[in-house]
Amino acid sequence: MAELIECGSCGNEVPPGKCRVCAFVNVDPRAPEAVPQRARVRHGQDELIVLDDGAEVHLGRMFSHKAIKEALRPYDYVSKEHAEIVLRGDRLFVRDPGSKYGTKVGGVAVGPEGKDFGLPVTILLGPSGHHAEIVVEWVS
């Protein structure tokens, strides 16, 4: 039987790999260290920020990185704290803490429990047809 490790997301004791409780992909801490992943967050052609592995960023008109706030300010239907993103290894965790108009990734609605996605992703903030579009992709 494989030795158990603590899941980096939910804290349960699980074997290395995909957590059977929350689906987070855990890496065995005894494995050789992987090259850190970096991803860029952009709106249109404008690069807003670069995320290092483990970075947590809020997407919204108020409680965000300055460049994100400025890019989203014109969108009245984007909440002050609309969504959160976290780069976790080769996955992006996206969570909507309860915005008025919702968050979608690849047509999938994201709620307060959040979901993991592979990159690149396009995050739609706001109602269909009137959304702000944020793209998260690997830095090459």
TrEMBL record:
The keyword Phosphoprotein applies. CDD domains: FHA. The keyword Phosphoprotein applies. Keywords: Phosphoprotein. InterPro entries: FHA_dom, SMAD_FHA_dom_sf. Residues 57-110 form the FHA domain. This is FHA domain-containing protein. The lineage of its organism: Bacteria, Bacillati, Actinomycetota, Actinomycetes, Pseudonocardiales.
